[in-house]
Amino acid sequence: MILIRLALQTVVLALAQLWGNKFRAILTMLGIMIGVGAVIATVGATEGLKAYVLKEFDSFGPRKVWMDGTVPRKLRGRVSWSQFDLRLSELEYLRKNCTTIDAITPMYFTGATVRSADESRQSISVTGVWPDWHEIEKRVAIKGRPLIQTDIDEIRNVCLINDKGIQELQLDADPSGDYILVNDRRFLIVGVVETKDVAQGFPGGGEARTELYIPVTTALSMQPRETVSFALAQLKDAKDAEEARAEISSIFRRLRKLSGEDENTFVVEAVQSVIDQINRLATGITVAAAGLVAISLLVGGIGIMNIMLVSVSERTREIGLRKAMGARPSIILVQFLVEAVVLCMVGGLIGIAAGLGLVAAAGQIPGSPLKDAAVPLWAAVIGVGFSALVGVVFGMFPAIKASRLDPIVALRHE
Amino acid sequence: MPTPVIEISGITKAYKMGEEVVGALRGVDLRIDRNEFVAVMGASGSGKSTLMNILGCLDRPTSGRYILNGQATEKLSAGALAQVRNKEIGFVFQTFELLPRSTAVVNVALPLVYSRKFWWGTARRAREALKSVGLGDRMTHRPNQLSGGQRQRVAIARALVNEPSLLLADEPTGNLDSKTSEEIIALFRDLHQRGQTIVIVTHEEDIAGHAQRIVRLRDGKVVSDFPTATDPVHRDFLDRAAQASARAAGQAAVGSESRPTHESRAAQTGGSA
After folding, report:
1. Is the distance from CB of B185 to CB of B209 less than 8 angstroms?
2. Dihedral-angle region of residue A290 (phi above 0 means left; psi in -120 to 50 means alpha; beta otherwise)
């Protein structure tokens, strides 16, 4: 009971002391304020940026793995890129033998002139795919039917069209069964898929427009060619991103008969790996910022120690009086320690407010990626916690000095 | 025989001054009973400040015994001595020692902050103590809004708020004019009437004259210890004061109850018993 009352009185006393020396207190707290403000702003900005980027990646799908052929660095400029493009046979082998993926499709992008009864459009995106494409891209046929394996096997002239295409080519609301011309070849529309917004910078991203999806075999036969430059697969589990990349790589190396020293002639990337990298990067930034903040808190702490020593010296007579009135050395110690901690925590709270303000202000800038940035609670808790710790560490020496004052000498102090 | 408030025997206190050891107290014995009003006198260097620090448990003797209100104190730790000060002793200082930014009530309540006995209703106790010294209308004034006499009254209220067994005053009128000094001394006499045990350390003979008993120190030893009425030095002082005032203007003889109030420092003789 006496301890609770004493603690309350000490805190009140400490706050009164700060209020009595407002200007000095603010100058003293500046180091702590800047330190904590910086950590809050950095963490808020990093987390906000991370959330923004991850949201973009999420729209692309975290379980996706993409792969394409590439020319090894040693052979650059000497061989054609198409030499290392992906073969459908390689992708079929992967579909049958790769255990970490549950779907795979070639993605053969091409452009074509498309004509309907009333409209003609040039350079329309036409993509050659396998039926797994529906599963991987999460795009089901909302009208008609999806692509099926028979379409692939029989190299049928069938296509799926998106909503936007129906609009642009002025087709019926349900155009299944209608025909359109793709580079003067007649294609049967079998189904309709939703137009999907994909973030800019990703394949198929940007403003939505007409898209056609046709069997990849049909697409290749129109060129004609044997290989595709790009394929998409879906992980069974997003957690296995690294395992999947390793497995797919080893399968490719085996199929392409690459021996130990040879460079890969293909690239496998998982969205989840990129997400993990971004997360690691964000953690790295936070840790680096924490290091800088630690220096700032150290400097702030020295300021606190300095001002507490001044305070002890100024209030020597008061300390003597309190001791004469029966304050034990330990109570004097606690009083000055609490004062240092209160000083630091007030500084820390102001710093948090400043940091929050900074992040909020950055979010107000039009088009800012920090629009939805939020400072996590743990950052605020750590901010206040570290301020308090600085108060305890740097307030200890002045407090010990105060507690050891001889009351007789202290009362005679001028 | 009732327990004395103070019982010290064979107290010595030695300080190291460089290589030399200086004896500030060289064997002091003293017994002060409940409800005594004692003045401790001595010139500077006589050891009276050292004795007061030891009586107030601010300092420990080098040797000897000090039993304060039945409790031996010479072996206590700094923390335990702090508790004894809080419980047993009320200090009044020459320079008041009030917290400048705090109100009278807060100042008076200061010892209660550290009290184990009175942790409830501290503000009420502080207000009652202020009323008992006649400052019921100055509760929320700060020291700079009070006169010197009022400040010392606040300090006295603070010394009394813990109901100490001993009120220890160090030159309580040293910073006050003679009229205010009279008022403060009257307050001490009033407290004594109400049963308070009081020790005043002073070098002013006229102030000491208000006590029941005068203990004189010289060179770290008690050289005289008489009731005020029979103290030869004090009687001598009174005689000289009476002659001086009679000579001064041939005024009417002083009343039996009044005391010499002029600044008659010439009459001071130190401690020649």
Report:
1. no
2. alpha
Nearest to A5 among B78, B86, B119 (CB): B119
CA B209 to chain A, closest CA, distance in angstroms equals 27
- In a shared domain, residues A53 and A116: no
| Amino acid identity for residue A275 in this structure | I
Residue A375 · residue A40 · CB < 8 Å: yes
Q: Determine the Cα–Cα distance for residues A20 and B207; give it in Å rounded to an integer.
A: 39
Which class is B35-61+72-228 in CATH?
alpha beta
Of A175, A205, A236, at which residue does a domain stop? A236
Domain that holds residue A12: 2-57+276-412
Question: How far is CA A167 from its chain centroid?
Answer: 36
pLDDT (tens digit, 9 = 90+) per residue, B144-188?
999 999 999 999 999 999 999 999 999 999 889 999 999 999 999
Tokens of A82: 């198409």
CB contact under 8 A, A20 and B101: yes
Q: Where are the domains of chain B?
A: 35-61+72-228
Other CB atoms closer than 10 Å to residue A56's CB: what's the count? 16
State residue A200's pLDDT score.
Answer: 52
C-alpha span between A385 and A397 (Å, rounded): 20
pLDDT in tens, B207-231: 999 999 999 999 999 999 999 999 9
Measure Cα distances from B150 to A114, A285, A293 in Å: 104, 63, 52
Cα A93 from Cα A102, distance rounded (Å): 13
Same domain, A83 and A213: yes
What does the alpha-carbon distance between residue B46 and residue B78 come to, in Å, rounded to a whole number?
A: 26
**What number is the ipTM of this complex?**
0.87
A26 and A172 in a single domain? The answer is: no
Q: Is B86 on the interface with A (CB under 8 A)?
A: yes
Buried-exposed string A152-162: b where 16+ CB fall within 10 A, e elsewhere: beebbbbbbbb
Q: Which amino acid type is present at position A59? A: S
As a whole number of angstroms, the distance between CA B99 and CA B190 comes to: 26
Look at residue A246 and tell me if it is in a domain: no
In-domain check, residue A268: no
Helices (H) and strands (E) in chain A, counts: 13, 13
Q: Give the start-end residues of each E strand in B18-104.
A: 20-32, 37-41, 63-68, 71-72, 89-92
CB B28 within 8 A of CB B36: no
Q: From the list B78, B91, B101, which residue is nearest A324 (CB)?
A: B91
Q: Is B123 on the interface with A (CB under 8 A)?
A: no
A123: nearest Cα among A133, A134, A112: A112
3-state secondary structure of B223: strand
Instruction: Find chain B residues with C-beta within 8 A of A1's C-beta.
Output: 119
Residue with tokens 């690459």: A258
Write out the H or E segment, with its range, that includes residue A254: helix A241-255
Q: Does B114 touch chain A (CB under 8 A)?
A: yes
**Total residue length of chain B:** 273
Residue A249 domain flag: no
Check CB contact under 8 Å for B114 and A324.
no
Question: What single letter denotes the amino acid at residue A326?
Answer: G
Task: Give A-chain residues touching B101 at CB under 8 angstroms.
Answer: 16, 20
B269 backbone φψ class: left, alpha, beta (φ>0; ψ -120 to 50): alpha
CB contact under 8 A, B59 and A408: yes
The per-residue pLDDT for range A137-191, each reduced to its tens digit, is: 888 899 999 999 999 999 999 999 998 889 888 888 889 999 999 999 999 999 9
Beta bridge partners of B9: B65
Report which residue type is found at A12.
Answer: V
